Structures are given as C-alpha cells and as structure tokens.
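Agenda item 2: adenosine-5'-diphosphate complex prediction
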Amino acid sequence: MIQFKDVSKTFKSKGVTTQALQHVSLTIEDGDMFGVIGFSGAGKSTLLRMVNGLEMPTEGHVEINGQDLSKVSHNEMRKLRKSIGMVFQQFNLLDSRTVFDNVAIPLRLNKVDKDTMHKKVMELLEYVNLADKADAYPGQLSGGQKQRVGIARALASDPKILLCDEATSALDPQTTKSILELLQDINKRLGITIVVITHEMAVVKEICHRVAVIESGVIKEMGRVVDIFTNPQSQTMKDFVTSIINMELPAGIK
Ligand code: ADP
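Presented output:
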C-alpha cells in the first residue's frame, strides 16, 4: 500500500519558491491501477518521484507498506527501490546497447548469474512480444517497441509497484492503445500495483480504476474513475471530460 499523509513539497531555487504539492493525502491499495491526472506543472512528476524516494516531502510523510520513506536506512531504500519499477515518456534506453542488454541492466546491477539472466530477459522479451528484436538496437525500433523494451526492463527486477511517467505521451493513438493493454495485463496477470501520471484523459478512462485530479499541487478530487468521469467537480476534470466528449461525438451533435 502507498500512502501520502498530508504531504507538501516546496522547491527553492534562485530565490524563487514553488509550492509543487500542498497537503496531499491519498492511499493506493495493492493491486490498484491508479491515475493522477493534471495539466503540465500541476505537480504530477513530483508526486510520482516521491513514491520511490527520489524526492522527499518538505512536510508530511510518504509510506510504502507502513514504512515511512524519510526514516528508512540507505540499505532499506535500495531494497525498496528494487521493488518499484519506472517507465518513462522518452523510454530512457541506452542507444549503444542492444534490446537484450537494455533489459538486462537491472539484473546485471543485481549480479544475477548469466544463465538466470538470459532466461529472465528472454522471458520478458517474449512477454512484451519482442523476442525477435533481442539483438536490435533502440534506433532500429518504433516508439511503441522502445516503450515495450522500457517496460520489460522495468519488470526485470520483479517489482511490486510500477510507476508510469506519461508512458504513452510520445506515442500515436494506436500504439498508445497497445501499450495500455500491456499495462492492463501487467496489473491483472502479474498483480502489480500501477500508478500512472498523465495529462491524457483517454489513458485514465481506458485503464485506471481510481484517479486523483491535481491542480497547482492540490488534489481537487479523487475516487473511482466512473464516478469522477460521470460527475466531475473540479475545473480540470470538467475541461478533460468536455474535451473527450467533443472528440467522441459526431460533429453534428456537439
Ligand atoms: P507536472 O509533472 O505536473 O508537469 P512537476 O511536478 O514537474 O509538474 O512540477 C510542479 C511544479 O514544481 C512546477 O512549477 C515546476 O516548475 C516545479 N518544480 C519541479 N521540480 C522542481 C525542481 N527540482 N526545482 C524547482 N522547481 C521544480
């Protein structure tokens, strides 16, 4: 379980103070598929980076399974980070390494023996449907294929939680759909808790069970996607819902 307890985050740089998060409280249950939606600058990345301790709260606490991240030892933090995978908008692959080697990175870091590593990487590549690309380089892949490599790499250390940072924002709608289906399968079949941050309503609508709507660092509303979608309260959500309805209705009845 992931818990934010009255979390605030202030950045100070070059005499400018930014309140990135203000009194954020939320609970994400194990096995959930949780979305955080908001416009650019709303505080989504800051929130996500707090789940794996890359940012620490200025006030309040973030807890994973009851463990307060500000109180864990260096060693415990390393262990915890291994149980949290991350998928990025720009894939973050090493261009000079093959697909196989990119997926193998976490296993090499964990000093997994060669045979086990080979078996695991090939299983993961089969799972994301890229076994035939093991020896290819990222530059030879489409955006969707690159993201599948990124997802396979994130799964290599058997995470309990997967954090997705705008994972489909660089992809076309058709490819987005296939990546969202993959994330859904990871959540259902592997039981991994998934947190997605996005500015795309379609992502939340397609795959999330619950959603938090964030505006200027404040959670404006939170709940089941179906409830928030049918009865939006915040201006952000009203704007998102309107934009999606306008997209989906035939022009004549807008
Ligand atoms: P989002 O992911 O929703 O676009 P962010 O969490 O990246 O939003 O940023 C929230 C606010 O915090 C923005 O105003 C951003 O400029 C600011 N911010 C984020 N990271 C830093 C940082 N390291 N230093 C200073 N300001 C930051």
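Discussion summary: The first strand starts at residue 2 and ends at 13.
Owner for follow-up: CH.
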